[in-house]
Amino acid sequence: MAGLYSGWNRAWVVAIGVLMMIVPAAAQQHDPFYWLGEINKASAVMVVERGIVPKELGSRIADAVRQVIATGDSPGAVRSGNYLVIEDALTKIGGPDMTRLHSGRSRQDIGATIQRLAMRDDLLAALDRLNAVRAALLGLAQKYPNAIIPAYTWGVQAQPITLGHYLTAYLSAFDRDAERLREAYARLNLSALGAAALGTSSFPVDRPRLAQLLGFDGVVENSLDANQISPIDTGAEAVGIASTSALTIGTFIADITQQYAESKPWFLLTEGELTGTSSIMPQKRNPSGLVFLRAQASTVIGHAQTFVLVAHNVAAGMSDYKPFINPKQGNQPNNVVRELTDLLDGFRLLIGTLAFDEARALDEVNADYSTTTELADTLQREADVPFRVGHHFASELVNFGRAHGLKPSDIPYSEAQRVYTEAAGAFKLANTNLPLSEAAFRRALTAENMMRVSQGLGGPQPAEVARMIAGQAARLQADRAWLDDQRSKLKDASAALDAAFSALRNP
Amino acid sequence: MAGLYSGWNRAWVVAIGVLMMIVPAAAQQHDPFYWLGEINKASAVMVVERGIVPKELGSRIADAVRQVIATGDSPGAVRSGNYLVIEDALTKIGGPDMTRLHSGRSRQDIGATIQRLAMRDDLLAALDRLNAVRAALLGLAQKYPNAIIPAYTWGVQAQPITLGHYLTAYLSAFDRDAERLREAYARLNLSALGAAALGTSSFPVDRPRLAQLLGFDGVVENSLDANQISPIDTGAEAVGIASTSALTIGTFIADITQQYAESKPWFLLTEGELTGTSSIMPQKRNPSGLVFLRAQASTVIGHAQTFVLVAHNVAAGMSDYKPFINPKQGNQPNNVVRELTDLLDGFRLLIGTLAFDEARALDEVNADYSTTTELADTLQREADVPFRVGHHFASELVNFGRAHGLKPSDIPYSEAQRVYTEAAGAFKLANTNLPLSEAAFRRALTAENMMRVSQGLGGPQPAEVARMIAGQAARLQADRAWLDDQRSKLKDASAALDAAFSALRNP
Amino acid sequence: MAGLYSGWNRAWVVAIGVLMMIVPAAAQQHDPFYWLGEINKASAVMVVERGIVPKELGSRIADAVRQVIATGDSPGAVRSGNYLVIEDALTKIGGPDMTRLHSGRSRQDIGATIQRLAMRDDLLAALDRLNAVRAALLGLAQKYPNAIIPAYTWGVQAQPITLGHYLTAYLSAFDRDAERLREAYARLNLSALGAAALGTSSFPVDRPRLAQLLGFDGVVENSLDANQISPIDTGAEAVGIASTSALTIGTFIADITQQYAESKPWFLLTEGELTGTSSIMPQKRNPSGLVFLRAQASTVIGHAQTFVLVAHNVAAGMSDYKPFINPKQGNQPNNVVRELTDLLDGFRLLIGTLAFDEARALDEVNADYSTTTELADTLQREADVPFRVGHHFASELVNFGRAHGLKPSDIPYSEAQRVYTEAAGAFKLANTNLPLSEAAFRRALTAENMMRVSQGLGGPQPAEVARMIAGQAARLQADRAWLDDQRSKLKDASAALDAAFSALRNP
Amino acid sequence: MAGLYSGWNRAWVVAIGVLMMIVPAAAQQHDPFYWLGEINKASAVMVVERGIVPKELGSRIADAVRQVIATGDSPGAVRSGNYLVIEDALTKIGGPDMTRLHSGRSRQDIGATIQRLAMRDDLLAALDRLNAVRAALLGLAQKYPNAIIPAYTWGVQAQPITLGHYLTAYLSAFDRDAERLREAYARLNLSALGAAALGTSSFPVDRPRLAQLLGFDGVVENSLDANQISPIDTGAEAVGIASTSALTIGTFIADITQQYAESKPWFLLTEGELTGTSSIMPQKRNPSGLVFLRAQASTVIGHAQTFVLVAHNVAAGMSDYKPFINPKQGNQPNNVVRELTDLLDGFRLLIGTLAFDEARALDEVNADYSTTTELADTLQREADVPFRVGHHFASELVNFGRAHGLKPSDIPYSEAQRVYTEAAGAFKLANTNLPLSEAAFRRALTAENMMRVSQGLGGPQPAEVARMIAGQAARLQADRAWLDDQRSKLKDASAALDAAFSALRNP
């Protein structure tokens, strides 16, 4: 239905356009033909090293493999990911002896290996985009670390916090997601090659060497596990992380969305690429990008559940959950991770267009009574009034204020004194006079004061926010270094494979 | 990843090929541009009839609408589904006055209407393919109505039944699915047009007339419901039916799949289009089509759940669950119904390649003790032995037979007599002699006898099977007639719209 | 974890208390022992009528059945739902001949029958509570039919509507749910009894008579379908309706919840039973009941998906999806329907505590520009200005107003004139003077006017709201009559069964 | 519906009984009252240490806390998990000053802390049961390491493997699950206490000290994250692992279940506790425990998805996904992990009753052609025939054998020679004579040979199986040591807390 949205309407069109300008994650990854070429190169090197194939034949096989790859790389060529199609091309070049390359292999282990090769890139791509999201959130946090905003519990204004505090909370969640992705990567970057159909073979295949040549950190040891069992749990783990990340993004979107129900939000999408208008309602500036992104996040979760369904209640060895499944099925773990990558990229864009109105946010805090916790705390801290007594006084003060349509700053001091006396009396305190001067009372009700006196580890006060921003920036930097490191290792392995493969040429 | 599977291997390639040869349901349906054209034609007729637009201007609007449709219908033209793009084209032809066509409309009600127009065709297409599945099952049932097969409870052979009995059970479920689709259709084929943004308008828009012109059976009365509430529940209903149907298809697939775990199945896919081979295992003839179809069925269920997620916990008026959503989202109810249609078509193909081995099925029955229920029934019916006594005797007989590796027909009569005497004694019966002759005893243990003596309504005996096959055939015929009838009505409405629209030309 | 919430805090405690005071749906339904008694009574009548059991023995069986029921009904007695436990009790009373009652039956068909007997009551109970929800919504609609409230698209204020309009939109959805429940009931109230294990039997069991005795409207014809196939699709249908209804309730909850993000909501839970306070924040009045209810709605959806998972990818005859499954499993369709019933009851309670602030709702409308659609409509209707021109003028007027922090009513007429002239010029209109007097201009921007001039079928204007309220009230009355009618029929059937069973006593 | 299953029928009853004898995981864990006591003890120690409360008052608070705990521990006492109920009891003992214990706390951070305290025990309990499952699988593997069984691809017999190979594949998956649980534990065993409502407080609360006193490995740094964000992603992670583990268990169950469709399975539940009979079919020995367990596994997955739904599309600070939610909701992550624990325990029981029939498994292998891969491999390895040629020969041999109803061992050598000559000719080989003696040909087709000559890392041959069993045993031992270590640390922390709390008594 893409056609429904192309055309005249600037905002809608651009919204879609922008989302399309994000090069979809799937388009940036290698295709199965590429991976099959790498696998064939690695196999050629190994079968010669282990004497399964004589050097001379190995050289001819290498030539044929090289030709087939070159043909596939030429413009407009068909690039099959089916080994039997490739084998047919090899045989046409060099006769039936070419099939010795396949000694101790099967499409089953090739499929399992390609799935891991592709997923390893997919996980790294997701991490890359996750790091970009973290950078965008950090940027916003660094711009307004100490701006005061309302925070909510049960969906109701609870206490003021600072924007830096709010954003580092989400940064912590995305830091955990990065950790989960790295841990999944460690279980994933292992080779299935040489497992053959499921039980290895009678050829002296060197599985660790194949793994090394393909940049894997090791092998999936048990060959049945490699082909049949591990695709289920490693797939479920990957889609589970995608789903978890989408849930957190959805929470952030819900926070922003709730602003739009008000006539004057303090967090708004900058009018432009991600907003839309109406064909009938002249006043509308719709946060289309926000709605699209929420639907994308829900879809990631739904597709994660779809993979679980595809892998559910089928015996081992079935192909439902495997990468070489009906292409119409389209919900393999790789696709879900790629959808997460696209979601992260859209989210990063959205953060980039978020306009924050500091004054409006403070107005919202001042329009409600969310500083009264600190009034009770002040009474205990400075005047030794037990917490429950101060809490009761503050609660009655709120009832009075709301009943009279007053903001906290509008409540007469004399009324505060009266309410306190009643409250202290109800608890039978000896001294029932409000033990705060008017100035102290007024100060205790301001959000600025509440931020200043806050002193808990991890709280919204400037010192802690600065510390947490610095901490998250350091963690991001470390994660970026880790990612660079992995990519370097893969690049080095690829170069080493090319060198070993080239060396087959002249035996 | 389609490329992974194209090429040399006949079976895999063809399996995919065949699934691709099924023209996907989405490709057979009208696009939003088409529906927008129909809606504009209907609006043009109505605004003139109701005097919202003078006849002369109506004639010019109609000309412009006609031109825009013709342009979109020309080869290679862009066919936008966005009204504002179309309006821009209309305005270029006839100036701002063209926009009076849009009086009392919005992209919101247009979107809701297109969604219903498209879904109405999608539901009819699904019904069409469901009817084809029913015809295929009926064909198989009519070919072997009385062939004996094992039936299972708790996954273990339970009793023999007949193939006609087995297949009419599934036919009953698909008959119920057809009923559900028709009932959903009745709630669906109602018009949202004229609801405008959500609150109708101050123009005297004639919503019932618009509905009539577009072939709807009526209107969605409340305009807020039309745009915002009903898309949720009617969407959830449609995907729920798709999910239910996929569950039943999955059950049938599981029945067939379990055959393949045996070295000699009695239900097999004919080797060919839907089966595959192995690059390494010479003996393999894989039921690839069966596995693909199961994954497709699971995917329908997962995508149905995805729509529920997309519509979940969002306030009214959000667009998550609506048809004019981010095209990347791709899980709208229409898509799920189209995936069901494709699943039904694949299932029909699969039924067409199912080869049934009558002798092998009977062997499977004879290899186990699933007729012993009738032995106990015979004892009560013919020799007045209480059921629990006969059941106990038969159970002990089975224990004896299995312990000695005997099939039912191999058990010596004398052993049966001995076992009976012990069983009758345990219940303290007066007569502890087996009250069946050897012939009667032998006969009571055959599957053929069990089918013959069965007499319950809806049972596996020939008379009931014949009656149920005839009944299902009649229900199928009625459903086909209903479908033809709906399509005729829609065709007639379309012709009437064209006539009324043509009449605008010369006012 | 119930203990976490019992005690001192009034609101939380009472919130839970109230939810507990709702007698849970499960507690109001008959248990399997009861249904087994009814089934045994019906079987006793039928086996005598059909001569499977002689009258004299039938009389003795009936006596034993009566004794066993009486024993189970005595205080503190174990009430087994397992037929074999009951048969043991019968045999202890009357010897092995009692087991002839079971002729042509199995625990399989008994299980399938009990599931339908229980589900039939569950569906009727859900309908009963759904009708109560509709009555509560109708009451609210009748109280404030024409109160003006904002409506939203894309989560942003769109146009004013009336409360009666808003509520009748939801009433329409619940009316469709009632229709779906009645249609499911028609497919459900059919008897499986006599299907035996799956293939009926060689006894002349009269299945239609058994159905009649148990108040069923007919039989599930095919015996394999009765026990093995139909539990899947009828179960999936029932949980699908529950899920659909929960989605709609969740939408309503989201509408209300979004109010709470503002410091001054216009829709609030009356402080009391469904609201809570905070142990630390003195100002908090939390809408706990709303949050609980949303979690309950999400749980209904999750449990519906759980049933689908339980029935997914298992062969026919498996018991995963059947009623006589592991009691720890706890997600059978009946449970999900009962959870829906409890959700509906909680929702009804919540509607009862909703306090609506008419003035605040109008303020919210007046604080934004959602009437500007009508300004453009007025220009076309009264001054013949093409819609797109009026829309452009209004859009520019909104930009001016927002940039200057003005409400619609604050915009100087002279500025409106200036903006109009520019807009008309951009479209090259001949007349570029605003063709509305200041009074007409002001009036066009009021919500009251917009409601008054609205004239579409199903719109928010008083006449249509009154008509829709009356229509929904009539539909509710009809549904209540239908429900009473079904319950009467079941009561009559139960009395007829008791009479026929009593007649066995003295043959 | 538990009553449905109590009673006479030994197997069903016992099946349920056994499942009930598994002390449900929930019953083995501490309740909220216990954790609230621990939290109050830790707070009492800290507020005195930090001077928030003077020593003397601290001593009185400690006495009151001690009294309240003792009261709750007395038989039949109500054990509230609501802090406000406890505070009321404290106040009754010591007056309003007792409420200073709550300085800088809220029910929000207490709730988040209890959730983590409980989940930490839940994760360790799941690990404990997972280790028991691994031990049971290891026991079976050690009993029959080299027994030959068929393995499958696409649901069709593929190649023989050994039971040790098969079981170590699953052991690898459970080893990964253990790794995931340990990684989740590291993210989970951090303290939220002192986060207060969400923004810490103005009291000098020492969060790291509170964490240490409660046995946490650290704190959840950001206080908003601690209460509002982390419960979503840590909850989703926990239920995701449960779902993943249930998927793997379901795969194993599907493997076993498929055996039951045959009249002679080679893997059977020992008749007894986990099997059932039929009230009507004398021959039935149903694997009820297997079916129950599959439904339990599906339910774990469904409840995991339910938690995701409960946390989906709600703004931060909502309580849907939190531990102190409506107790009727019942799908919090803790419950799902406890359901996993019960599932693991049932699975361990099931493994314990699995009877393996070595001869029958070998018969099944010998009845099919799954050794022909090795025939082709032998031809290449020993006679230098290119793999594809050998594969083609073997495939034609299978066609011949199946067409004539022959097992591999029955094929005449002369026919093999003929088929080879044709195959070699088709590939234009120089030598078209079968280059294997009859003995070599026969040997190449036996499963025993295929196991012996297999030499890949991780294959089914005895040496690799022995190595993998030893490896899995070592990993299990290490995991048990890790678990013991964690439990020791928690015990030590608990003792240290008690000591510090006791020291408050005499200041």
What layout of secondary structure does this protein have?
4 copies of one chain form a homotetramer.
Chain A: H1 10-21, H2 32-49, H3 55-73, H4 83-94, H5 107-143, E1 148-153, E2 156-162, H6 163-188, H7 207-213, H8 223-260, E3 267-269, H9 288-310, H10 333-353, E4 354-356, H11 358-366, H12 372-383, H13 387-403, H14 413-426, H15 438-444, H16 447-453, H17 462-502
Antiparallel strand pairs in A: 1-2, 3-4
Helix pairs in contact in A: 2-3, 2-5, 2-17, 3-4, 5-6, 5-8, 5-10, 5-17, 6-8, 6-17, 8-9, 8-10, 9-10, 12-13, 13-14
Can you describe what's shown?
The structure is a homotetramer of 507-residue chains. In chain A, helix 5 (107-143) runs antiparallel to helix 6 and helix 12 runs antiparallel to helix 13 (387-403). In chain A, strand 1 (148-153) and strand 2 (156-162) form a beta hairpin. Mean pLDDT of chain A is 91; it is low at 1-20. The longest helix of chain A is centred in the last third of the chain and has 41 residues, at 462-502. The radius of gyration of chain A is 31 Å and the shape is elongated. Chain A has 17 helices and four strands. By secondary structure, chain A is mainly alpha-helical.
Descriptors for this entry?
4 strands, two-stranded antiparallel ribbon, 507 residues, disordered N terminus
Percentage of β-strand residues of chain A:
under 5%
Unreliable stretches of chain A (pLDDT < 50, length at least 5) are 1-20
Structural class of chain A: mainly alpha
**Main beta sheet of chain A:** 2 strands, antiparallel
Number of helices of chain A: 17
Share of helix of chain A, binned: 55-70%
Oligomer: homotetramer
State the separation between the terminal residues of chain A, measured CA to CA.
57 Å
CA radius of gyration of chain A: 31 Å
Mean pLDDT of chain A: 91
Q: Choose one word for the global shape of chain A.
A: elongated
Largest interface: A-D, 116 and 116 residues
Order of helices and strands of chain A: HHHHHEEHHHEHHEHHHHHHH
Number of strands of chain A: 4
Please state how the strands of the largest beta sheet of chain A are arranged side by side: 1-2
